[in-house]
Each structure stands twice: as C-alpha cells, then as structure tokens.
Amino acid sequence: MTTTVERLETVRSRIAAATREAKREPGSVTLIAVSKTFDAEGIRPAIDAGQRVFGENRVQEAQAKWPALKAEFPDLQLRLIGPLQSNKAREAVALFDVIETVDRDKIAAELAKEMQKQGVKRKLYVQVNTGSEPQKAGIGPRDAAAFVLRCRQVHGLAIEGLMCIPPANENPGPHFALLEKLAREADVDHLSMGMSGDYEIAIGFGATSVRVGSAIFGAR
Ligand SMILES: *Cc1c(COP(=O)(O)O)cnc(C)c1O
C-alpha cells in the first residue's frame, strides 16, 4: 500500500513534469492539498513532508481541525474551495488565508465588511460556473468579467484569481481554456483549476494552482 507521503511525492513530480512540458517556469504551479474528510492525524504526514498549502470545502469542518495545526505551523496557508454562505463569512475570514469561491454580490459585500471589521486582508478568487450547471455554485461565464469589476469597484475587493470546477463527465480542456480567457478579460493573474483526475491537463491550460485531494490522501 502506498502512503500519503509517497502519493504526495508522485503528485509533486507529475506537476513538475507537466510544468516543464507546458514550457512554463518551474515552480509556477502551487499544489493545494485538499484535505476535506481527513482529520488532523491524516493531514500531518503531508505537513511533515513540507506541504504548506491546503484546501477545505466546508467552513465548519475546517474549524474543527485547522486552528490547532495553524498554531503549530504558522506558515500554513489554508484555502476555502467550497461554497460560502453569507452567515459563515465571519468564520471564513477568520480562518482562511484565501477564499476561492466568491460568486455573488451578497458574499462579496459580507467579505468586505468582515475583513474591515477583523482588520485583515484575504486573497480572493471568483468562482466561475464554466459549465453553467444549475446545481453548481459560481458566477455564469457571461457575467464573470462584470462581476470581477463590481467586486473591485463596488465592494473594494482585490480579486486575484478565478476558480472553476468543470462538469464531472465532460472533457475539462474547454472549461480550463474558457477560465483562462475570462481571466485575461477580467485582468486577473491566477487560475485555480485541475483536480486529481485532470491537474496535468489544467497545467497545460495555464493553471497557477491545482486542487488535488484523493490522489494525495486516498479515496474519500
Ligand atoms: C474535493 C475537491 C477537490 C479535490 O478533488 P479530488 O478529485 O479528490 O482531487 C478539488 N476542488 C474542489 C472544489 C473540491 O471540493
């Protein structure tokens, strides 16, 4: 049986190879280790192996395991990659360093208010529903550039990237290409795209971070 650390090493070397293959700068892709459903003891081997960027998709679950780990390892960076309810904005701003799922004005306004109240700045991404799936969070692709502009001009938020989760049973390439195009239109530099099954493809389309869970921690 392979261990978390062995799987992490494999993912790291595949990211490096895909980055080379795409003729991109070495180290230009950040690995977000998605630790949802795994507890602190399951996560620790990855931290001990030097992994410092983690993703969680639920605020409440993250609150149960990350405050203690962040106190122990102050250089950890935690990213929220799941849908955010406005009544959880306070907790999200307090715990997460990066929030990747800004997708409507109400959330943008809440985040602006909470960052001001708490005297902190968090890095923010806008989630785009590239497949326009009714059940999925994210702003529609046609509204994405205007929404980024409103985040900046109306809510005073610095948006640094776009994030997407392509439809489960479609070729992800066109969705990654669309996100890259929207990022250029909206003038943002970072692209969070690619998961265990398609992170190498995403790197070919310009991902600056990939969100990899099961390929590191095992099946959920
Ligand atoms: C769970 C999750 C991932 C990781 O998925 P894997 O297929 O396990 O790599 C990536 N992004 C989001 C938004 C997730 O919720």
Provide structural commentary.
Helix 4 packs across helix 5 and helix 6 packs parallel to helix 7. The chain is globular, with a radius of gyration of 17 Å. The chain has nine helices and eight strands. By secondary structure, it is an alpha/beta fold. The two termini are 16 Å apart. The model has no long low-confidence stretch (mean pLDDT 97). The protein has an eight-stranded parallel sheet with strand order 7-6-5-4-3-2-1-8.
Taking the sheet with the most strands, its summary is: 8 strands, parallel
Specify the helix fraction band.
Answer: 40-55%
Q: Could you give the count of β-strands?
A: 8
Number of helices: 9
Q: Order of strands side by side in the largest beta sheet?
A: 7-6-5-4-3-2-1-8
What average pLDDT do the residues reach?
Answer: 97
Contiguous low-pLDDT stretches (5 residues minimum) are: none
- What fraction of the residues are assigned to beta strands by DSSP? 15-25%
**Ligands present:** pyridoxal-5'-phosphate
| Outline | globular
SSE string, helix = H, strand = E? HEHEHEHEHEHEHEHEH
What is the terminal-to-terminal distance? Answer: 16 Å
- Rg from Cα: 17 Å
Which class of secondary structure composition applies to the elements?
alpha/beta
Question: In summary, what is this structure?
Answer:
By secondary structure, the chain is of the alpha/beta class. The chain contains nine helices and eight strands. Helices cover 44% and strands 17% of the residues.
